[in-house]
Design brief:
The chain is of the alpha/beta class and about 375 residues long. The chain folds into two domains: about 1-55 and about 340-365, Urease, subunit C, domain 1; about 55-330, TIM Barrel (Alpha-Beta Barrel). It is about 25% helix and about 30% strand. Strands 1, 2, 3, 4, 5, 19, 20 and 21 form an eight-stranded mixed beta sheet that branches. An eight-stranded parallel beta sheet has the order 6-9-10-11-12-13-14-15. Strands 16-17-18 form a three-stranded antiparallel beta sheet, with no helix packed on it. β20 (about 355-360) and β21 form a beta hairpin. α3 packs parallel to α4 and α5 packs across α6. The radius of gyration is 20 Å and the shape is globular. The two termini are about 15 Å apart.
Length: about 375
């Protein structure tokens, strides 16, 4: 079936397109057409003067829809989280687990492998190879320096599903970085107390991103700029940021954007409320904490992060949309997503003029924003 989305401003990830129809067939974008030249057999969909952008991509999400995945790595949890994510405008995400036991990591691999979902792009393990000084909400007893044999075994068990790992460069030997890199795993520096020099060495070795900029990392100080300074000075390394005004304030968001430009991208670091298990997250009005009050995750959606960038971060809408879609796709080298382009998947977010979600489209299918189902 040929679909023609009409009456919308289309942000492609590269430019803004007006006065054209977006043509989709069998879940793939096939053309931008003049309204007068829409094929007669196309089903016309009036977007109601909406904004159409690439579906959002979240490289760090732990839970939603009533589940924290690490506490209950099951098919039911994975699908409930996926439905929740889809209903918020995000069409692709990495199912993320914080530092945990090997048994939980292995169970997560098994569940994601055996229960494919079009929105699940793979796994992101945040830990366990972190610096305990900057562990944040992570479980101390599982944090350790990596040994080559255990990393080789992990990569074999993951079978290509592990797309990203957050580690502290100062606790990992160069051969560990090489192992992950050689298996196509994107390496992100985080939960790290690295000096500027240690961070630069990690980047030179093959670390290509940093995890939740400023949070759980060496501080930016005028006598030692640490990991943030190394990221700012790099010409290629990306940085994720949690744009909720809590993990970083909005002036910090604006400054980071001016320095990093297209290398800054959005994540949610979203968790779910749980009062038992290895990780307990307590919901507050606008955040999650551990029972002792330690900040442990956000209640953010990527759409809200985009709004915050526009409203409080001095970032243009077109660029904020790229931060939630085009740039994350580039970080993990994901093909066929992150832009609205011929040959790409028809993964879209359709927004009103005041940036409220109208509906999500994944592989050409409209998603009910209440249920997350087509």
């Amino acid at each position: 079936m040929l679909l023609a989305f009409c009456n919308a401003v289309i942000y492609t990830g590269e430019k803004k397109v007006e006065g054209k129809a977006l043509l989709i067939k069998d879940g793939i974008i096939v053309d931008f057409a003049d309204i007068a030249s829409i094929p007669g057999d196309a089903v016309r969909i009036d977007a109601g003067n909406a904004c159409i952008a690439p579906g959002f991509i979240d490289l760090q999400i732990y839970g939603g829809g009533g589940y924290l995945f690490s506490n209950e790595p099951s098919a039911a949890a994975l699908h409930s989280i996926s439905d929740h994510v889809l209903a918020s405008g995000t069409t692709g995400f990495l199912m993320t687990l914080a530092t945990n036991s090997d048994a939980i990591f292995d169970k997560a691999i098994e569940i994601v492998r055996d229960n494919p979902h079009p929105a699940v792009m793979g796994l992101h393990f945040e830990g366990p190879f972190l610096n305990p000084v900057k562990r944040g909400a992570h479980i101390a007893r599982y944090i350790r320096r990596p040994a080559r044999a255990e990393v080789e075994a992990l990569l074999e068990r993951a079978g290509g599903l592990l797309k990203m790992i957050t580690l502290a460069p100062e606790v990992c030997d160069p051969e560990i970085i090489d192992l992950f890199k050689d298996h196509g795993v994107v390496i992100s520096a985080g939960h790290s107390n690295a000096t500027y020099e240690e961070a630069v060495r990690g980047f030179e070795k093959g670390i290509t991103s940093t995890t939740h900029l400023f949070n759980a990392m060496s501080p930016f100080h005028h006598r030692d700029t640490g990991l943030p300074g190394a990221a700012f000075m790099s010409k290629a390394v990306f940085a994720s940021i949690i744009a909720d005004g809590i993990h970083v304030d909005y002036p910090t968001l604006a400054i980071s954007k001016k320095l990093l430009k297209e290398r800054l991208f959005l994540i949610t670091d979203a968790v779910e409320e749980v009062r038992q298990g290895a990780y307990e997250h307590v919901r507050s009005k606008d955040r999650f904490t551990l029972p002792d009050g330690t900040l442990s995750g956000s209640s953010l959606s990527l759409l809200q992060a985009v709004r915050n960038c526009v409203r409080y971060g001095d970032i243009e809408l077109e660029e904020a949309l790229r931060m939630a879609s085009t740039y994350p796709a580039k970080v993990i080298n994901a093909a066929g997503v992150g832009k609205i382009a011929i040959g790409y998947k028809a993964n879209l977010v359709v927004l009103s003029s005041d940036l409220e979600l109208k509906y999500t489209v994944i592989e050409g299918k409209s998603i009910n924003k209440k249920t997350g189902h087509p």
